[in-house]
Amino acid sequence: MKQPEGYEEGDQVCRLKKSLYGLKQASRVWNTCFTSFPKEFKLQPSVKDGCLLFRETENDILIILIYVDDGLVCCNNKQLMNDVIDHLRKKFEITVMDPNCFVGLQITRDRPNKIIHISQGHYVKKILERFELQDAKTESSPMDATQKLTSDGLKGQEDPITLDVPYREAIGSLMYASVGSRPDIAFALGFLSRFSANPKEAHWQAVKRIFKYLKGGE
């Protein structure tokens, strides 16, 4: 680490006593720091995902989700949840808000019917604008079942020209929506991702169809 401006002394470097954002080891240091907290509440990491911590007893269920420096606390015991949040406040500088949004997911709760609805309307609107499809007509399905796509484009209408379009970026943007709240586009997206190396016009139109489909359910 370079010496701060105004404090230069010879050809020396600084030794960090604490981690800083942006360093290679920053995420590991943060993880080590945070994992000491769950032990005090006897929380266990999920076998499926280490970012999901939970504790289940005869009367209580406590779940904590961590994504980088964003977190979500769920509990059927309000007092226990407040104890956890108060304990977090003592260890970390946190802001407590209603769980209306988490890692880009919009969360709507219907308490009387015990229903939770998850969506990504803001994200979908953002990627539609990014790829200039905000004014496009909507589609009723993510894929046209009558079309047969090959590596050279539409079967019977092969196209030798590889397009210079943000095909990979579009696939990546759609992938985030697919994993988050729209598994209904997963098949079409997985199929079209095969053509990322040499996309043809037919492939690009098929990708844009998924955007138009999402726009219909925005």
List the helices and strands and how they pair.
Blueprint lengths: L25 H10 L8 E2 L6 E5 L4 E7 L2 E6 L2 H14 L9 E2 L2 E6 L4 E5 L1 H10 L18 E2 L2 E2 L2 E2 L8 H14 L5 H7 L8 H16 L2
Antiparallel strand pairs: 1-2, 2-3, 3-4, 5-6, 6-7, 8-9, 9-10
Radius of gyration computed on alpha carbons: 24 Å
Sheet with most strands:
4 strands, antiparallel
Spatial sequence of strands, sheet with the most strands: 1-2-3-4
The count of strands amounts to 10
What is the domain tally? 2
- Count of separate DSSP helical elements: 6
Shape: extended
Low-confidence blocks of residues = none
Distance between the termini: 46 Å
Question: What number is the mean pLDDT?
Answer: 88
Compressed to H and E, one letter per element, the order equals HEEEEHEEEHEEEHHH
Q: Tell me the β content.
A: 15-25%
Secondary-structure class: alpha+beta
Pick out its properties.
218 residues; alpha+beta; 2 domains; four-stranded antiparallel beta sheet; three-stranded antiparallel beta sheet; 10 strands; 33% helix; extended
Provide structural commentary.
This protein has 2 domains: 26-96, no CATH class; 121-216, no CATH class. The protein has 6 helices and 10 strands. It has helices spanning 26-35, 78-91, 121-130, 167-180, 186-192, 201-216, and strands at residues 44-45, 52-56, 61-67, 70-75, 101-102, 105-110, 115-119, 149-150, 153-154, 157-158. Strands 1-2-3-4 form a 4-stranded antiparallel beta sheet, with helices on one face. A 3-stranded antiparallel beta sheet has the order 5-6-7.
